[in-house]
Amino acid sequence: MGSEQVEVGCHRQTMEEDAQEALDFGDLPDGQLLEGVSGAQPPLRSYQRPAPPPLLLQAQPQQQVDYVFKIVVIGDSAVGKTQLLGRFTRDEFRFDSKSTIGVEFQTRTLSIQNKLVKAQIWDTAGQERYRAVTSAYYRGALGAMLVYDITRRQSFDHAARWVEELRAHADSSMVVMLIGNKADLVGQRAVPAEDAAEFAEEQGLFFSEASALSGENVERAFLRLLEEIYGVVVSRRALEPDERRRSDPRTKGPAAAPLERDRQILRLHRQ
């Protein structure tokens, strides 16, 4: 979408500090998916941490956040959801990480198209016994990261089930990114990138492989998701005046047609 992605801050907040914000997500406007492209990334060959983006700015405490985007990270247990979140929000990888119990969330604030955006990212447990708990947190979510482990075929086979759950509990305009984690484990690959790219194309998802361990493609994937969400929100807000005009019985003349969501424009580049 051509926006410049510049990091302006990275921080965590307590559950108490963000609890009230979580109640307000239902007020954010729904959106329509915009045109975009994504693609499977080549297998990673190194554990080396990639260099940070060239443009970095220090967050200013007095800056006012323009948008708060709720994102859910979903997928089977032990695919690395918490590690991906830790890499994006704190740029760290914990070797002693344990399975998430229930639901946790972290935040990161950054700039998208000169607007300060706070990403509130919910890390949902993948265990079956917590499915009922996590489903309650889809409300108000504008985006989702659907994660599988490239070394565990079953975690990828379950992706279709997670997509069904999203469609049952989330807004139809939610932007979804399919992520194949642990891409550094090339020798243990059980899911060809081509299979995942084909599934993503069929389901209208964005797709990338990434490594929470090395950090490769983690930043890129999250930023792409946030960019697409930003486009959705801005598009919907731009349509609001026209929606009000069409609903006003005093308005004369033909109403403009609403923006229709077309999944077919979300095509993948095969590298």
Automatic annotation (TrEMBL):
Family matches, as SUPFAM superfamilies: P-loop containing nucleoside triphosphate hydrolases
Pfam families recorded: Ras
Signal peptide start and end residues: none
Record PROSITE patterns: RAB (PS51419), RAS (PS51421), RHO (PS51420)
Compositional bias per record (Basic and acidic residues), positions renumbered to this chain: 241-251
GO MF annotations in UniProt: GTP binding; GTPase activity
Family, similarity comment: Belongs to the small GTPase superfamily. Rab family.
Protein name, per record: Ras-related protein RABA3
Organism, as annotated: Colocasia esculenta (Wild taro)
